[in-house]
Every structure is written in C-alpha cells, then in structure tokens.
Amino acid sequence: MSNVVDIRNIKPTVTLSKYLQGQFSEHLGTGIYGGIWVGKDSDIENVRGIRSDVVRALRNIKVPVLRWPGGYFSDIYHWKDGIGNKRTPIVNTSWGGSLESNEFGTHEYFDFCQQIGAESYLNVNMSSGTIQEMTDWLEYITSPYGPMADLRAKNGHEKPWKLRFVGIGNEEWGEDGHMRPEFYADLYRLWQSFVHQYDNSQKPLVKIGCGPNIDDFNWTDVVMKNASEFMDGLSLHHYGLTDLWDKKGYAVGFKDKEWDSLLYSIRKMDYFIHEHGLRMKRYDPEHRVKLIVDEWGDWLHAESGTNPAFLQQQNTIRDAIMAATTLNIFAKHAGLVGMTNIAQTVNVLQSMILTKGNQMVLTPTYYVFDMYKLHQDAKFIAAYSDNGDPINYSISEKENNYIISICNTSLNQSNNLTIKMTNAVKKPSYAKVLHSDEKDAHNSFEEPDKIYLNDFNNYQINGNEINVALDDKSIVTLVIPK
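The structure assignment produced for this chain is given below.
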C-alpha cells in the first residue's frame, strides 16, 4: 500500500508539547524497589540509593515529567510515613498486600526527578487523605518558610523543590471512591481551593482533576460543567487489551489475531480523545483545560513465574508498534492533549526498562521513546491515525529540520509513505528504524540486545518528494534539514 501526504502549504500553529512523552511510576511490584531504588548500601551502582543505570537510560530519552506515587497506590499513601530517618511501613493493599517500606518517599522522588531531568507530577490522596494532609505536603515541598519548611530542613533539604503538576484524586469513579461525577465535582471544587502557591517565584501549579473511565462521557460532561473553571487539566485513562478485561492475552507467544485485537483496542484512544474533547469544548471552547492522559499503554497477563499483582510483563515489537501508534494519536490531538504518562517506567506494564538484580534491559518501547524525543516541543505539521489504515505518522518542525516518524502496524505487509515538501528534499541527518521479523521479538536478561535501533536507508528522494518504504512491524524516524 502506498500513501501520500502533502505538507507544502501547512503553516505550523500548534506545538507538540514535550509533556506528551511523560512517564508514570507507582509503588507497585518492583517498579520502585529494585527498579529505581536499591538503597545507599547496595552493591549496584547508585547515587543516594537510586540506581545509576536506570538514571542514565532515562536521561537519554529526555523524560519531561514523572507522575508519582500512583495511581491506585496514591489513595492509601500518607506522605509523612515516607520522610525522616525512621519510616513507617504499611501494607500495600492496593497491589498484592506486600509490605511497603516507605524507604522511597518525597525526598527520594524529587531526587530521582532531578537526576533524570524530569519535572514533577504529584497525585495527592483524596480517597483516604484529608485537605490538611494535602496542604501540609504542598507546604513541605514548595514553601521557603513555615513549620513544614522547617521540618523539610530538619530532614536534610533546606530549599524548596519545584513542583509543577498536582492531580487531585485518582480514578475516583472506581475502587478509589466509587464516586458519582456530581459528588466528585463538588469535592474537587473544595480541595482545589487549598492547593496554595507557597512560592511565587515558581511557575503556577497546574491543577488536574480526575477524569473519566475510558468512554464515560457523562463523567466528563458533569465534571466540566461544574468544575472546569477551577482546573487546568482533566485526566483520562485507557489501556490496550487483546480481549475482555479478565481475558488479557500474553506478551509473548500470542496468536496473529491478538496483534489485530490489541491494535484495535489501542486505536480507540483516538475516538476517546475526540469524544471527550467535544464534551470539554461545551464548557471550555478554547480548550484552556487540557486533557491529561496520565495512564496509558498495553495491559497484558503478568509474566510467567512472577506475582500476578506486580503486573510485570515482557515487552515486544508489538508493544513498540502500539506505543508509536499512540504517540501519533496524541500528536493528532496536540491542541487538546496537554500531557500523557505511559504506565509504567520500570518493571510494570508497558515499561521502558526491565531490571533483575544488577542487570538492566531496555525494551522496544524504550527505543520508540528514544526516536520520538526528537519531536519534543517541535511545531506540529501533520499527524495521521485511522483504524482502517496500517500506516500512521507524526510530522513536525524544529530547529530548521523536519522530523518524520512513521509506523507500519501491519503484521505481514510492507507499506510506503510519500511526503511532498515545499523545497527539494535533502538527505536525512538522522534515519533510524525499529523492526523485527518475529512478531514477539523482545529483549531479555539472557539476550538484552535482540531488538534495538538500526540505521535506515530504505527511502528514495525525488526533487521535493521523499518515498519511505517500511517493512511490516516497523517504526521509522527521519530528520531532514530544511
């Protein structure tokens, strides 16, 4: 199949925010402990207990923002358990009933963000917490003075941290509260009133409300109608499934039909964003309130031999195709979507990184983010994704370069894309491809480099056109000087 896109007369007006490539780390399984935190006395290379190999890998993909501490876990999290020399352990009733040591708390989170170069996105506990607990936490983090600032200094950090994003509640429509949208909207109005700006030298805090469960359009309508004037963002969660929720497929060894069913599920993101956007526009015509997709990715069966509640799954070329497709959908809606956070960064669900002891493996999804980082804060030119077309793409412009990322989602068919440009096309200064003949190719601790980025040269330049030929199951990124 051959497709043609003409960008000759497009004048960019929208920016592809760097926040579209955000991450999410929750206290779940080995996502934090073993994945990020190994402790200061560990034989694994670390800086203040945070493992250095993971830091280096995440710095490389320029993680713009990290959501923490959950997710579901945030609704049982009480921040004072995780500060000071003596931490208070709790039972993690959100994820498997394991013991949560609280060794990784507020200080460690901000240290980790600084080490990887990411901004902070804090999800506060609305379900079992209190407004006073939230205000104390915000004061502890951001205030230059006061009793909480004194406590922070006593615990070893005199200066305030920089906090950018605050999420008020998580999935309050589900087990986090079983709330109705009317009730949540009123609670949100109350809670957000106490999200104080303690340090006026910092950028204003971005307040994010709890949005709908996938296609619950009534939730969006009610919450926007009653609370949109008090919020800057509304969250949305959507995970790709191969079948029903209780019949999730496996990450490896899957049948061909599960490639198609997962792709179909992932592509629903386009529909959800569009439909929720229509409801949001009723009350916010200029889209001042952004849609924040702070949980997304593939949710498959846990890897054999692991605790099912720890949600550790292998990561294949199929996951990479799903990630690229989703990032292209986000680009398509860049005027509405303000931030996204893939679930999750290390060892959980569709992760960037897998760790085991002192070993670390980069996943195919990691390499997608490595390519797509070139789009961060670029001017949006074009993006395309359609549930009936195997090709989807993003095209942007940055620092006098065109950045072109194309994904061929077909399991067994090569496809072409021809791009028409205003001037004669120059030779790409960057050309990489992620591809495998095996539909479930992945990196393991035994074979950590089975799939990775390769140089790409399967293109033809003819005047002001470039034709890109893509193998099946492949993602290509080109940087072309203007």
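Interim note for the steering committee: The chain has a mean pLDDT of 97. The first strand starts at residue 2 and ends at 6.
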